[in-house]
Design goal:
alpha/beta; Glucose Oxidase, domain 1; two-stranded antiparallel ribbon; single chain
Length: 549
């Protein structure tokens, strides 16, 4: 074992001991809370856990650590068979090679695209050798939004064709609805309804500026995953229309060779507020050859319950979720290959554990039951949260609300937070009161282009019709530089580690806000419901959970 690893293990074990001591001798002041959060992050982001990849030994160590913390707090097991663990059956797939993508013109001319420069290979579930040759149809953003009178497929024949879509959705649309329509799964489902046999996604200039296409080379052989249904099949909502890959700006220009509108003009139109572009059959067809390998896997959610005190309301459950996994090992970057995930999402797990401690140490049992849920597979597509939301360890109708904790950027003393989803349900006032009590402002989404509303675990609860919120630290008081700097430099990279200037006092404050929100929800007289006419409530919720006025 290298000296670095030995020191990492020593630090990790010290952190585990420190965390146990902190919980045993807890006091209600911010100093103790900051120390607890430091201890949890120090252990969960140590090299010992090798980046906590879903289904890995490092993840299993992290899961056992969280279960031990739950037990030490006196919480009841809420997993399967009287344990803290809910096993999640998984199927994993990754590329065996770089694939082959060839454009074919009607005159027989062929152009072979270059891996990493023109295209990035996809990881579809299904046959391990997939060969597909089909004409292509460009459909703009590929959105179908009846409430906006928008159908990007109108008048186009997609049957047996490869659909080509722009990444994202129109910038003028409300941020959370924009995130829904920008989501790749939403787009594939619409394409599948129209008989498309595959989907290609195109980078836009704004995408390249935010996250250069070349960076995707680092993790192109990571395992993609999905959870398995009882028959063993992956939970793929559009298996007949697989993702075939994504193309860079350079690759998109080659794809549009001979088209009646060049890609530069398409990109220019797409970046206008409504993103209206021409839509048409392309002049070339595409031959794709993909080779993948598949394996079965399993990981576990970790769940614990604090039973409510009210004889009636305790049957309703407020879920506090945070993802425990990260992305594991990748090719070295500046000599380091372990993606420790300190902020993403050891910080969220640490916050959840501190909220659980606050409930237990408050001396007041909440009226509703509170379930603390550390989920697996978030980085693989929100898998653990979706599996729990569809296969809950409590009655599905008892799930009253979800408060999700994901990647608080704790490198600055934040003075505002963004509460995704708060205005969509009666959870909004609880968020406002909790923020006001701590002197923290509420701000709108400062990064709608990132589509954050559909990229974290709360969204799987939304899809199950459950009112949900997700807090992120805001952009005030130096937050924009801190947040954007983290995204540009360390997001999903080895430098998201303990060397970051983590402000543990800010972590304590973040825990206080989330405790206040959860307490308000758990003790409220009325069960949370969606607002009448809300976009997501209308799409996913049963009528009983939608306000009548």
């Amino acid at each position: 074992m290298s000296l670095r690893k030995l020191l990492s293990v020593s630090v990790s074990l010290a952190a585990l001991a420190a965390s146990s001591l902190a919980i045993a001798q807890v006091t209600p002041d911010d100093t103790a809370s900051a120390a607890n959060i430091r201890a949890h992050i120090t252990f969960l982001a140590s090299d010992l856990l090798q980046g906590r990849d879903t289904g890995s030994p490092g993840y299993d160590i992290a899961a056992n650590y969280v279960a031990a913390q739950f037990a030490q707090l006196g919480l009841k097991p809420a997993g399967a068979n009287g344990t803290f663990f809910q096993p999640v059956p998984l199927v994993a797939v990754r590329p065996r090679d770089e694939g082959r993508y060839v454009l074919k013109a009607k005159d027989g001319t062929e152009v072979t695209l270059t891996f990493g420069d023109d295209y990035m290979v996809a990881r579809p579930f299904g046959p391990e050798t997939r060969k597909l040759s089909a004409p292509m149809v460009f459909v703009g953003f590929g959105v179908v939004a009846p409430e906006k009178k928008r159908d990007d497929y109108k008048g186009l024949d997609l049957k047996g064709k490869i659909v080509v879509v722009l990444s994202g959705a129109p910038s003028a649309w409300q941020t959370e609805e924009r995130a829904y329509y920008a989501n790749g799964r939403t787009k594939r489902e619409q394409a599948a309804k129209r008989g498309a046999v595959g989907m290609i996604s195109l980078y836009l200039p704004a995408d390249e500026k935010r996250r250069p296409f070349a960076e995707s080379k680092r993790d192109w052989q990571h395992w993609a995953m999905n959870w398995r249904k009882p028959d063993g099949a992956p939970n793929d909502t559009a298996p007949e229309t697989p993702s075939l890959g994504s193309l860079s700006l350079q690759g998109a220009e080659k794809l549009f060779a001979g088209a009646r509108v060049p890609y530069a003009k398409i990109a220019e139109a797409a970046e206008k507020p409504q993103g209206e572009t021409p839509r048409f059959a392309l002049a070339t067809s595409l031959d794709v050859t993909l080779h993948t390998e598949t394996r079965m896997s399993e990981s576990a959610n970790v769940a614990a319950m604090l039973e409510g005190s009210d004889p009636t309301l305790k049957s309703e459950v407020v879920v506090l979720s945070a993802h425990l996994d990260h992305i594991g090992i990748s090719p070295p970057l500046n000599g380091d290959s372990i993606n420790n995930g300190a902020l993403d999402n050891a910080a969220g797990i640490a916050t959840m554990l501190e909220v659980a401690r606050a409930f237990k140490e408050s001396g007041k049992v909440p009226r509703r039951s509170v379930l603390f849920l550390a989920v697996t597979g978030e980085e693989k597509g929100l898998l653990g949260s979706e599996y729990f939301a569809r296969n809950p360890t409590v009655p599905a109708t008892s799930l009253a609300a979800n408060v999700n904790l994901d990647m608080p950027v704790l490198t600055y003393a934040f003075t505002d937070v963004v509460a995704f989803g708060a205005d969509r349900s009666t959870l909004g006032p609880a968020v406002a009161r909790a923020a006001a009590k701590t002197g923290v402002a509420l701000s709108p989404d400062p990064m709608p282009e990132e589509g954050l509303f559909t990229r974290s675990d709360h969204f799987r609860f939304v899809e199950a019709g459950i009112p949900s919120i997700f807090l992120m630290t805001g952009f005030q008081n130096g937050g924009e530089a801190g947040f954007r700097g983290f995204l540009a430099s360390c997001y999903h990279k080895p430098c998201d580690d303990l060397a970051l200037p983590i402000n543990y006092e800010a972590g304590a404050r973040f825990a206080v806000i989330n405790y206040g929100i959860a307490r308000e929800i758990a003790d409220g007289d009325a069960r949370p419901v969606w607002k009448k006419g809300d976009f997501f409530g209308g799409k996913f919720a049963r009528p009983a959970l939608i306000a009548t006025e």
